[in-house]
Amino acid sequence: MSLRQMEYFLTVVEESSFTRAAEALHVTQPALSHQIKALERSVGGELLDRMPRGVRLTAMGRAFLPHAQLAVRSARQAERAARAAAGAAGGELHIATVHALAVGLLPGVAARWRAAHPGVQLVVREYSSTEALEEQLERGVADLAVGPEPKEWTGPLLPFGREEIVLVVPFDDPLAGRGTVRLAELSDRGWVRCAMEPLVQGQPVLDWACGLVGYTPRTVVRTEHTSTAVRMAAAGVGIVAAPSHMVGGAVGEDCVLLSLDPPWHRQLAVWSRVPLTGAAAAFTDLLRTP
Fold first, then answer.
1. 3-class DSSP state for residue 211?
2. How many CA atoms lie within 13 A of 219 on its CB side?
3. Most C-beta atoms within 10 A of its C-beta, which of 120, 174, 244, 253?
4. 237 secondary structure, DSSP code
């Protein structure tokens, strides 16, 4: 069994066709079929059902697929890490993060990275939650993850700072002249909610926090992205709770930020499946440098 055979197998699965896969791989169809048959001999059974129109995975193929994906991704990750460590042109560093950090924190870090490491390209992949980051990093889709600190992670993990969760209101809101506000004061207000809202004890954090002070928040708008929710709040649609560092990236300065009393903070961290070396270590140093 070879890495090339697994790459061929994955391409056939992706294209659902030997013909299209051969074209994508720039090989002849007989050569591709030969490699897939050799792979099937090595695993002891058929991985693909050949049908008149296309192919589909067998039970063995479905079991083999995620492991082949991880093996191919890990090989590519190893190549990226080596090239990036050497500062080679064309080197890449793949980063998984949550949308709020991609909007608010990473642009400044990426600018500093480009100035210091112009030959190593950053590839940023955005996800909706810390749990999604963990899952995707386990699958090898990125070299490191940047986000709220996961509850359980067995690989290398380095905290690098905290983010404050604040409330966003427009300038003409009755609360705009205040610096802080308690959740208990907001039982009659409407909220803009986001699908990326983190969970606490199995429920959205706002539901959990408001429940502690005796009410269920009244939702007036739901959005997919945090940045959209912030813009809605700045326009006066309702209040939103969002990380303070991303508000400027979402709407600029046309809104008011209120700290919660008591304050809400989340620990941020960078973590990886393997030791942070080379470009990954250099990027981590940038994150941890004020």
1. helix
2. 11
3. 120
4. S
Give the three-state DSSP class for 199. Answer: strand
pLDDT in tens, the chain (290 residues): 888 888 888 888 888 888 888 888 888 888 888 888 888 888 888 898 888 778 889 888 888 888 888 888 777 777 766 665 655 455 788 899 998 899 888 999 999 999 988 888 899 999 888 888 888 888 778 889 999 998 888 889 999 999 899 999 998 999 998 889 999 999 999 999 998 887 777 788 899 999 999 999 999 999 988 888 998 999 999 999 988 888 865 555 678 899 999 999 989 999 998 888 888 888 999 998 87
Give the type of residue at 15: E
Distance CA 6, CA 15 (A): 14
Contact 258, 181 (CB under 8 A): yes
Contacts of 161 (CB under 8 A, 6+ apart): 267, 268, 287, 288
* Distance of alpha carbon 268 from alpha carbon 193, whole angstroms: 22
- Tokens standing for 258? 């209120």
Q: Are 240 and 255 in contact (CB under 8 A)?
A: no
Give first-to-last CA distance, the chain, whole Å. Answer: 48
The structure tokens listed for 173 are 């809101």
Residue 28 CA from chain centroid, whole number = 37
- Which tokens go with 250? 């979402």
In angstroms and rounded to an integer, the radius of gyration of the C-alpha atoms of the chain is 24
Among 12, 5, 95, residue whose Cα is nearest residue 50: 12
Q: Residues with Cβ < 8 Å from 55, sequence gap 6 or more?
A: 12, 13, 16, 17, 18, 48, 49
Question: 106 to each of 62, 87, 147, 264, how far by Cα in Å?
Answer: 37, 21, 11, 21
Q: Closest Cα to residue 101, out of 217, 245, 288, 203?
A: 245
Q: Quick one: 51 exposed, middle or buried, by C-beta within 10 A (0-12, 13-18, 19+)?
A: exposed
* C-alpha span between 77 and 277 (Å, rounded): 13
